[in-house]
Design goal:
The chain is of the alpha+beta class. The chain has helices at about 5-15, 20-30, 35-45, 50-90, 110-120, 135-140, 180-185, 225-240, 295-300, 315-325, 340-345, and strands at about 125, 135, 170-175, 190-200, 210-220, 250-255, 260-270, 275-280, 285-295, 310-315.
Length: about 350
């Protein structure tokens, strides 16, 4: 049997003498590699009698652990010394000009979200958020759309499997941000003035529709609220967003299950070089849906509809971006094309302000 004490001393001496990581690796291979001296001893355990294995086994394993620990300690010392030497010699001249680097840009949707938040914050609205995975009650039933209501056919909904139901309520990807309004009315007492921006999901895809898109909805609940307040709010918002004083609105009677009366909101446009430019009244395009909150919705949230009234409105953030910044295809918003982002994106410091212009 090889003298274990002698082999241990030789290995530790070789490890201590290693002056570099390469030299240390050579020692490791010589001792612990497949053909190493310590490995050979470990392989010999299988040829020993049970009595010899009981005696020699702990000693050989102790040798392996001692060599392994010594190699690890020496490696840490060599790496630390190399790092200190590098830190002592390397210098970085901070006065040199920075190399040219590709600048990132803010996505138009993010920019428009910031513009909308700035405008409505100036009008006294807070920002409310809610989950994108909703239950059937918040997304439909509380909004006066029961299971048998034909209005559910207005939404191409992404449902989760029935076995994924929570507390008996079927789960889905929200089809609008209106559930945030319900959650706000359930958790806050009037007066309520909130906007609810966020992602929504519907099974639809073409030049003007995508399976995921962005909406912003507004909600006001208080005493004595009427349609005049709604029209003024929308007119003030659109003038600030498009940064024009000649924005003209037209309200048309419509139908939404959660508002009564309901109105589609059209904005006037003028044709300039064959393109629609917001402002004037040469033509009309729909931009918003709105109305007075249905009494049943107010009651479903635990409020007295005889005491509180309110209005709500909603529009697509992506559509607003298309109208303001002259984009033609909604699908490009989600393609991740760097050329498109470079052309339509905003610099990181283009922070919307009402004083400097929200589209700065």
């Amino acid at each position: 049997m090889t003298d274990l004490a002698s082999l241990n001393a030789q290995a530790l001496a070789a490890i201590d003498a290693a002056a570099s990581l390469d030299a240390l690796e050579a020692v490791r291979i010589e001792t612990l590699g497949k053909q190493g001296s310590v490995t050979a001893l470990l392989k010999s355990l299988g040829q020993m009698s049970p009595e010899e294995r009981q005696t020699q086994g702990p000693a050989i394993n102790g040798l392996r652990e001692a060599v392994t620990s010594a190699i690890a300690a020496k490696k840490d010392a060599l790496e630390s010394a190399a790092l200190n030497a590098r830190l002592a010699t390397e210098r970085l001249d901070m006065t040199l000009p920075a190399p040219d680097a590709a600048a990132g840009s803010v996505h138009p949707v993010s920019q428009v979200m910031d513009e909308l938040a700035e405008i409505f914050a100036d009008m006294g609205f807070a920002v409310a958020e809610g989950p994108e995975v909703e239950d059937d009650w918040h997304n439909f039933t509380a909004l006066n759309i029961p299971e048998t209501h034909p209005a559910r056919a207005m939404h191409d909904t992404f449902y989760f499997p029935e076995e994924a139901a929570v507390d008996g309520k079927r789960m889905l990807l929200r089809t609008h941000t209106s559930p945030v309004q319900i959650r706000t009315m359930l958790s806050q007492k009037p007066p309520i003035r909130v906007i609810a921006p966020g992602r929504v999901y519907r099974s639809d895809s073409d030049a003007t529709h995508t399976p995921m898109f962005h909406q912003i909805e507004g909600l006001v609940i208080d005493k004595g609220i009427h349609m005049g307040h709604l029209k003024w709010t929308l007119e003030t918002f659109l003038k600030a967003f498009f940064e024009r004083d000649d924005v003209v609105l037209r309200l048309r009677p419509s139908y939404f299950p959660f508002t009564e009366p309901s109105a589609e909101v059209d904005v006037g446009y003028t044709l300039v070089n064959g393109k629609r430019v917001i402002g004037g009244s040469e033509g009309w395009m729909e931009v918003l849906g709105s109305g007075m909150v249905h009494p049943r919705v107010i009651a479903a949230c635990g409020l007295d509809p005889n005491e509180y009234q309110g209005f709500a409105f909603g529009t697509g953030v992506d559509r607003l971006a298309m109208l303001k910044y002259g984009m033609d295809d909604l699908r490009a918003f989600f393609d991740g094309d760097l050329r498109w982002l470079k052309h339509y994106g905003f610099a990181a410091l283009d922070i919307p302000t009402l004083s400097g212009g929200v589209g700065a």
